[in-house]
Design goal:
Elements (H helix, E strand, L loop, with lengths): L4 H8 L6 H12 L9 H8 L3 H10 L5 H16 L14 H18 L6 H12 L4 E4 L3 H15 L10 H9 L6 E5 L6 H12 L3 E7 L4 H5 L2 E5 L12 H39 L2
Parallel strand pairs: 1-2, 2-3, 3-4
Helix pairs in contact: 2-3, 2-4, 3-4, 6-12, 7-12, 8-12, 9-10
Length: 284
Amino acid sequence: MKHSTLLAKIENDMDRFTIAEKKVAAYILKHAEMVPNMTTKELSKRAGASEASVVRFCKTIGINSFTAFKMALVRDLIRSDMNVSDFSVIHKQDTPYDMFQKVLYHNKTAIEEMTTTLEKKELEKAIEAILGTKQIIFYGVGGSFAVCMDACHKFQKIGYQSALHADFHLMLPVVSNMKKGEVLVAISVSGSTKEVLDMVRFAKKKEVTVIAITNMAKSPLYKEADIKLCTPTIEQDFRVGNMASRIMQLTLIDTLYISVFNRIGHSIMDRFNEIREEVLKSRR
């Protein structure tokens, strides 16, 4: 079985545990699939430790109770088995519907885990920054560019000046003409894409407010940004495609969009309805 994030953490932290906690950890590592169906008493008996040691073990790894630990373990075990973002997927003979279930779970888990990385204050700061300007520019490359296209379209609909180019050189004059307080949203899963980092550093020279949508772990973009909207690390750098990461990015864009619309919607409804009328005409 491929180790889940939680099991890998336990293995890496073995030196931190007491002798009794090591017994609990060793049993869990060897029999992870059985643990979610056990009580504290059953695990302590099989591991050769006290029930108190089981509880202390959970707290040592940062989880408040054995029940919460079992829930986290189940989630990680299922996610490990249902991983569709790395190349192990070619070794599994799944039906299309089985694959649909795995993709569904993979994406759903990614969105749910965003609650552990997205800081409420950073999100509020992002909304206030956008409300304080009329220009918001989006920049990302590769898979993140598709998310930028969606974001640019959404904010243009509610009256924001926005522009988008996949080419770094075409984006430079756009950012060059930005003013202090205007917003650049930089999107990168790893946060280490050179073009994105160079654009962010150029924007900061113009005193543009930089909002980053990126992973929290080891992201240079995280350090460069004024406001950080963080996503969990779900996919490896070497992956089949940015599936769950794209879903998380789009979720954050939708959150920014609907939050701003909630604040200014009453003042732009006439223009919004005008756009909709033209769209309806094009369908006839």
